[in-house]
Amino acid sequence: MASVSLQDFVCALDPASLPRVLRICSGVYFQGSIYEISGNECSLSTGDLIKVTQVRLQKVVCENPGTGQTIELDPNFQGHFSPLTGPQSYGTLEELVSSVMRSSKQLPIWFMSTHRIDTKARVVPQEQPLMLEAVERHPKNCYARCVLGTETQPVVLHLPLFQKGPFWELETGAPRTMLQALQDPALRDLLLTCPTLPWRTLTLKPQYEIQAIMHLRRTMVRIPSTLEVDVEDVTASSQHVSFIQPLLLSEALARGGPFPLTTEILEVPEGPPIFLSPWMGSLRKGQRLCIYGLAFPSWRVIASTKGRKVPRYFMVSGAYQGKLRRRPREFSTVYDLLSALQPGQPLRVVATKDCEGDEVELPGFASLAVGDRLEVMGPGQAHGAQGGDIDILVCHRLSDQAEEEEEECEEEAEGQEQIVLPLYLSGGFVEDMNDGRRYSLADLTAQFSLPCEVKVVAKDASQPADPLPSFSGLRLEEKIMEPFLVVSLDSEPDKYFEIPPQWLDLTVVEAEEQPRQPAGSPPTVTVEEVTDAFYYRIRKLPASESQSPPPRPPKREGLGGQKKRSSQERNIKSFQVSDLMKTLPEVTKNRSNTYSKISTHKKGPRPTTSQDSDDDEHSYEEVAECFYKTL
């Protein structure tokens, strides 16, 4: 097949013959190394193969052949078009008129000339339709009264019958819809008329969008039919050609199967690994995977170890079958206490640090000592000494007998001391609890809020290498909802693991071989250790970012203000001492009397030594004290 322009190929294409394979014979390159504009391909290389799968009509350009004016029509345009056709040509206008008279046709008729017609009134372009209304006889010649209807106001022209052509008579055919007129090959490039439009004659130029598959292109390529390329239909000789269409794991997840699906890795996302598992090293280009479908359940819990210098982080599946026991939670701020308080769940804590209260700054702000037991009641607001409202946490201070005498809780409640703690207060608290029950992970997350501290007391029997029981404690940080795909390596079909497409979106291609059907449902991988970087990346998810930060403490006098105040106090003291020193000479004229007065205030006489002179120099404070007493 000879090469044709892409527009001509699409206009002549029968949609029922799709798909078709085309070779680009004359490529096009858009300046600037841009391959796509507004989602449409704009650069194609010579020799490229494309597989056309669908052609969609975007719009139709309606053009006036006389003036070149255009109107864009929507594909749903409801007007009807009639073709203007002619069976033969005539050498002169007289031959055309004679033929009409012999056929007993009624005027007016439509005709056109394949050459330009020059008149005194104006120039008639070639192939411009003219309407012959009548034949008029003038003293010397006969003229055809014609109307040029290309403008708003028709132009009347008088053409002599000896006007040379060739001329073609135009005949109006049966009305058709716009789509019927475009799909009829006999009407292509013919003049049409539509009573809905302002022009008496027009041509239709459709513009299509071609959807095609290209080699190693992940998404469907969209090509405008007006792209200036020449193509050749090579469908017959390209039956053996296989177009490799990449697929992301997220796309396989979104389309929902069919599973199992055998694939081959084309590309692995760049960046550090997210799991500390041996299978991460096997994810490389060329490795074959079998995808079995969506892992169940879809929620996971992020956990970190306790009691280790270097913590480790894990992602625990909701299908984890190990048994857990709650451990007392630790809180470093009052705000943490408020965050842990849940409706209907009492929260009692023990202070692990001394805390000095400030009744002046916040009424009811009592001091705490190590060992004080508190019951957290709820949030509130109090009026601070600086005039603003302060967010507080209302607590009851419990006596030591509260735990031993539960039957007297009503009498005790009357005598409980209510204290308030500002939310900005930092301190140390540990949960006062006694819960020896063993929970599954699903029950624990359903009954208690996270974060929560636990100890794994029984490992998951389905995971022989379950690492969680070996740790003295775990902190369950948060619960995340994210779909995972169950996957196995083609080289190790019995070893399964789970991949989250959101964070590890591999680019794969479907393999031709049939996937291996597993015997029963694939086992669930319940524990995966994650890297530090991935752990902190998860903690930045919107679910964590939505938590409001703790309140800021009220502004206090800064270090600069304290230094300034201390400097002022020293200046005042030095001023008082200097005034006092001015009076000292009068007092010390009689040192013996002065010392005798001083000695009367002491238990015994002052001994006389060789250092009396030195003692006299350092006795100004005593002299000053005596001076003020004698006033």
Automatic annotation (TrEMBL):
<dbReference type="InterPro" id="IPR039671">
    <property type="entry name" value="THEMIS"/>
</dbReference>
<feature type="compositionally biased region" description="Acidic residues">
    <location>
        <begin position="612"/>
        <end position="621"/>
    </location>
</feature>
<protein>
    <submittedName>
        <fullName>Protein THEMIS2 isoform X2</fullName>
    </submittedName>
</protein>
<dbReference type="InterPro" id="IPR025946">
    <property type="entry name" value="CABIT_dom"/>
</dbReference>
<feature type="domain" description="CABIT">
    <location>
        <begin position="274"/>
        <end position="517"/>
    </location>
</feature>
<dbReference type="Pfam" id="PF12736">
    <property type="entry name" value="CABIT"/>
</dbReference>
<comment type="similarity">
    <text>Belongs to the themis family.</text>
</comment>
<dbReference type="GO" id="GO:0050852">
    <property type="term" value="P:T cell receptor signaling pathway"/>
</dbReference>
<dbReference type="GO" id="GO:0005737">
    <property type="term" value="C:cytoplasm"/>
</dbReference>
<feature type="domain" description="CABIT">
    <location>
        <begin position="18"/>
        <end position="239"/>
    </location>
</feature>
<feature type="region of interest" description="Disordered">
    <location>
        <begin position="541"/>
        <end position="621"/>
    </location>
</feature>
<dbReference type="GO" id="GO:0005634">
    <property type="term" value="C:nucleus"/>
</dbReference>
